[in-house]
């Protein structure tokens, strides 16, 4: 495969910017166009629900310094929408212009999901996806304000912790029986519930949203499907995100059933010179033998960096394990791997109630995932156990020296 002369990257988030930077690190001297709808230069998302909401910073972690793009001869076009891909003539329509490409990378990210209930179109229902969202929410999280958060996933829980830090009165609504239930299951999800309740958060779990209630054009409460209402001054919707795959779909690229753009082990789509990375990539993971789509920070960063070498002629499979982290109150955690908390065996090492523990999820005796909570000495060992899907007796995971279990 001949080296390309021009590479176009659609999406100015972490994945796209990481790909652009890695191309220059790989020595690519051709044209690089990085184009997207954001108003700010590429930044990382974790600080939005962490440092910015907590008030520790006003700035996100920028992917690169402001001068980087000009210095590396990367053409960065912000506030510019890509509207169509033409596979036959290798062009993409962006901002009213037509741009040619030899290789194309789709890194269009995701957008917050909406509820299909009456009142969902109130303009003042908050969502958290962009830098301006986080800055605006931080101003709303003040002493005595009533904050209602719909969704008890990672964003909802981190937002609840930030709002409580600022003295807001917080209620979290979710139809599932525990926060973080789909990811962590009942036992570990219960640890997070008790922690938040100890910090003053009220949970309304096992009940869904029937509608948003408002007056004079403003949302003022959430009516639940048991007939009760939760009034709020600030209503935040945090029920996950959907991948922005419209551009890929209209171009005729193969799509996963449900969501995501199908990519092979090397992150290539069904079109030979078109790749997809980050939130939209339904990646056939060689270790798991199935498609995996991950919406976390590390996946966007690592896939963006990895795809650069394949754009330039390599065909290296992407094999990194999913990874994410969270900070809530005095709890810090890291999660590695891919687990089904309702089918896999849970093994706990340490003190659940003291919130200093490691949780392992095993399938057929193999370590599929591990989460360390306020325990930081065994990160390398945990990564090795997950990456190799090591077969370890549960009793040894609970008590033995973890470094010694890595074969």
List keywords for this structure.
407 residues, alpha/beta, five-stranded parallel sheet
List the helices and strands and how they pair.
Blueprint lengths: L5 E5 L3 H12 L5 E5 L10 H9 L13 H4 L2 E4 L4 E5 L4 E4 L2 E4 L2 E4 L3 E3 L12 E2 L4 H10 L5 E5 L3 H12 L3 E6 L6 H18 L3 E4 L3 E7 L2 E7 L4 E3 L2 E4 L3 E3 L2 H6 L9 E3 L10 E3 L4 E5 L4 E3 L4 H15 L11 E6 L2 E7 L7 E7 L4 E8 L2 E8 L5 H9 L6 H6 L8
Parallel strand pairs: 1-2, 1-7, 2-3, 7-19, 9-16, 10-11, 10-16, 11-12, 18-20
Antiparallel strand pairs: 4-5, 5-6, 8-17, 13-14, 14-15, 20-21, 22-23, 23-26, 24-25, 25-26
Keywords: FAD, Flavoprotein, Oxidoreductase
Protein name: NAD(P)/FAD-dependent oxidoreductase
Cofactor: FAD
Describe what you observe in this structure:
InterPro entries: FAD-oxidoreductase/Apoptosis (IPR050446), FAD/NAD-bd_sf (IPR036188), FAD/NAD-binding_dom (IPR023753), FAD/NAD-linked_Rdtase_dimer_sf (IPR016156), Reductase_C (IPR028202). Residues 6-304 form the FAD/NAD(P)-binding domain. Its cofactor is FAD. The protein is α/β, with parallel strands linked by helices and 407 residues long. The protein is 25% helix and 31% strand. It is built from 10 helices and 26 strands. It has helices at residues 14-25, 46-54, 68-71, 131-140, 154-165, 181-198, 246-251, 297-311, 379-387, 394-399, and strands at residues 6-10, 31-35, 74-77, 82-86, 91-94, 97-100, 103-106, 110-112, 125-126, 146-150, 169-174, 202-205, 209-215, 218-224, 229-231, 234-237, 241-243, 261-263, 274-276, 281-285, 290-292, 323-328, 331-337, 345-351, 356-363, 366-373. The strands form 7 sheets. A 5-stranded parallel sheet has the order 3-2-1-7-19. It has a 5-stranded parallel sheet with strand order 9-16-10-11-12, with helices on one face. Helix 2 (46-54) packs parallel to helix 5 (154-165). The two termini are 38 Å apart.
């Amino acid at each position: 495969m001949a080296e390309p002369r021009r590479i176009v990257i659609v999406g100015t988030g972490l994945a796209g910017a990481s790909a652009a930077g890695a191309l220059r690190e790989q020595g690519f001297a051709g044209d690089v166009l990085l184009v997207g709808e954001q108003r700010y230069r590429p930044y990382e998302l974790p600080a939005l629900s962490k440092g910015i909401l907590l008030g520790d910073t006003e700035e996100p972690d920028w992917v690169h310094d402001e001068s980087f793009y000009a210095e590396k001869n990367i053409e960065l076009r912000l506030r510019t929408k890509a509207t169509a891909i033409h596979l036959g003539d290798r062009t993409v329509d962006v901002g009213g212009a037509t741009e040619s490409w030899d290789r194309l990378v789709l890194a269009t990210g995701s957008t917050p999901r909406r509820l299909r209930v009456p009142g969902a179109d109130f303009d003042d229902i908050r969502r958290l996806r962009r830098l301006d969202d986080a800055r605006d929410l931080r101003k709303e999280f003040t002493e005595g304000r009533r904050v209602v958060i719909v969704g008890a996933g990672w964003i909802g829980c981190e937002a609840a912790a930030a709002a409580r830090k600022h003295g807001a009165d917080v209620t979290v609504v979710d139809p599932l029986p525990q926060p973080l239930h789909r990811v962590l299951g009942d036992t570990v999800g219960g640890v997070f519930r008790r922690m938040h309740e100890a910090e003053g958060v009220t949970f309304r779990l096992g009940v869904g949203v029937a509608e948003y209630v408002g007056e004079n054009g403003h949302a003022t409460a959430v009516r639940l499907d048991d007939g009760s209402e939760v009034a709020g001054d600030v209503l935040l919707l945090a029920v996950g995100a959907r991948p922005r795959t419209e551009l890929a779909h209209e171009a005729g690229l193969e799509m996963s059933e449900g969501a995501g753009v199908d990519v092979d082990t090397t992150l290539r789509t069904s079109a030979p010179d078109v790749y997809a990375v980050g939130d939209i990539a339904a990646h056939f993971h060689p270790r798991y033998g199935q498609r995996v789509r991950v919406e976390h920070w590390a996946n966007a960063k690592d896939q963006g960096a990895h795809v650069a070498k394949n754009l330039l002629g390599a065909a290296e499979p992407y094999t990194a394990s999913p990874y994410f982290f969270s900070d809530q109150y005095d709890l810090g955690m890291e999660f590695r791997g891919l687990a089904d908390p309702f089918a896999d065996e849970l093994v706990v090492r340490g003190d659940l109630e003291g919130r200093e523990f490691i949780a392992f999820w095993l399938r057929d005796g193999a370590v599929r995932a591990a989460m360390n909570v306020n325990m930081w000495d065994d990160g390398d060992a945990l990564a090795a156990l997950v990456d190799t899907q090591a077969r370890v007796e549960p009793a040894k995971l609970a008590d033995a020296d973890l470094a010694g279990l890595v074969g």
